[in-house]
Amino acid sequence: MAQYYFDLRTQSARGTDSVTADMMRHLHTRQHLGKTLVVDAEPGVVLSAARKQWLRIARSIQTQRASTLNADKILKYTHTITRMHQMEFTLKTPAERPNDDVFFLRPDELALAPAQCFNVYVNAALPKDTVRRLLTQLPDGALITDYCHATPWAELGLKPKAALEDAVAETWNTALKFLEDHRIDIDDLVATPLQNIEAIDDALDTLLAISYPFLEVASAFQRALELARPLRLSKATRNRYDALALLAHRVQALSPSPFQQQFLEVYNEDDSFFLLDNVFGLAGDALARRILAHQRAGRTRLAAALARLPQSKQRFASL
Fold it and tell me: How confident is the model at residue 79 (pLDDT cuts 50, 70, 90)?
């Protein structure tokens, strides 16, 4: 049986900012999950404001991309910007425009929810029959973010967003236990660059022997993190989460399977951690020298993985 979640959100913006601005910032952290439904009494007004806010966020990310030379960050930002510009906002119903991404509808237009709709923003009172119909159409794990606070979500069986955040902690502990069982200390990977390059290389060499179970654990944590976002995290916690994402990103890129963007989608906004990789993107003679260095250090699995890496993957995984 599907489980849904709710968040009674209040407008935190001040001055000329708006609920719509808050909504778009919130959606930005969850845009990779699936489709989105915005329910408002005046959807046309909200859509117009939402597009402006969305473009403002995209421009901010473009500025961040232009300010860095780090390949991980550039790839992450490019992926995000492309996704944001491709997303279609519409006033049409899902029946009329099933391939669009963000639907702005009145309560009386909610006969059909978008497919795989993990994000629902409510800023209008909803009739009980509309709520019940909506809840039969959402996927497991969907989050309803309610600015109106007129619906008793808990009485309808929904759990508070805090339960999603608890799942992040649970899957994180599982990931830590997995790493510890293989003698990898996550805190060794978030030290300063001069201290942790060797630790990351050693960890990769270990994980390449158990890549599939590791990626399963990392993917479970990633999914929990996606569903629970946005999250308020300390810098230390963000760095530890990013350390796991970096390992998973590297292991996935060095594995035989086709390269995917999945672990790029969970990097936190404060991802200065990725600046440590000052040899990212090596190829040719530089890559050959790096392979030889790994062989001499006893990292035979990492050296072999780099040696057999297709040209198309080299810029993603050279260490």
Answer: confident
